Amino acid sequence: MSTAATQPVAPPQDPRVRRTHTLLRQSLEKLLKTNDFDKISVQDIAEAATLNRATFYDHYPDKFALLECVVAFQFDELLKKRGVVFDGTCPTALRAIVLGVCDYLAATPRLCGEERQRQMEPHLESAVIAIVKKMVLDGLRQNPVPSLISAEIAAAAASWAIYGAAKEWVHTPHRGPSEHTAGLVLPLVTRILAPVSSADLMSHHDVMSHHD
C-alpha cells in the first residue's frame, strides 16, 4: 500500500508516458463503476488497459498510488472547468476552492457507492488535500507578505481545514447547500492565511498568561 502523500506534478512530456498514464487511469475508473476497490488487482487494471503488469509497475508502485492519481486528476479537472485560480489575494477564488472540495466529495459517494467510498477515503483525502495545498501555496508565493508563519505551513493548515470542513459537511444529515457552507468556511480559511507578526504572538501570549 502506498503511504507517501500525493504530490501534484506536471504531466509527463513523453507522449508515450502520457498515453500509458491515461490508459491506466481510465481503466481503474471503469473498473470502479462495477467493482469494489479492494477486489480490483493490478492484473485487472493492466489487462483492462491492454498492458502488462510490468508496465504498470514501471509507472506506479501499487494500485493505491494510481487511485490517488485518479482522484487528483478528477478534482484538478473540476477546478479547471470552473476556472479556479488562486493568486493569494482573491477571496472569491478561495471560496471557489472550498466549494469545489464540497461538491467533489458530495459527488463521490453517488459515483462509486458507499462501500467503495469507505475504501477510497484515505486516498481521496491525500489527493484532494495535495491539490488544494499546491494551489494555495502557488497563490501565496505569487503575492508574498511578511509573516512569521511560512507559506508552506499556512497552505498546509488551510488545505486541511478546507478538506476537514467539507468532509464534515458531506457527513452532516440534512445538510444545507454547499454554497452556504463555503461562505461559512471562507472567513476561517482567510484567518489561517493571514500574516502573523511578532505583535500577534505577543498579544496571544498575553491573553494566555492572563487566563493562567
State the main characteristics.
single chain, 212 residues, mainly alpha, Arc Repressor Mutant, subunit A, Tetracycline Repressor, domain 2, 72% helix, globular, disordered N terminus
How would you describe this structure to a colleague?
This protein is mostly helical and 212 residues long. The chain has helices at residues 15-32, 42-48, 53-59, 63-81, 91-112, 114-142, 151-170, 178-193, 198-211. Residues 1-5 have low confidence and may be disordered.
Determine the oligomeric state from the structure.
single chain
| CATH class membership of the largest domain | Mainly Alpha
Largest sheet: none
* Terminal Cα span: 46 Å
Based on Cα principal axes, name the global outline: globular
Q: What is the topology?
A:
Elements: H1 15-32, H2 42-48, H3 53-59, H4 63-81, H5 91-112, H6 114-142, H7 151-170, H8 178-193, H9 198-211
Helix pairs in contact: 1-2, 1-4, 4-6, 5-6, 5-7, 5-8, 6-7, 7-8
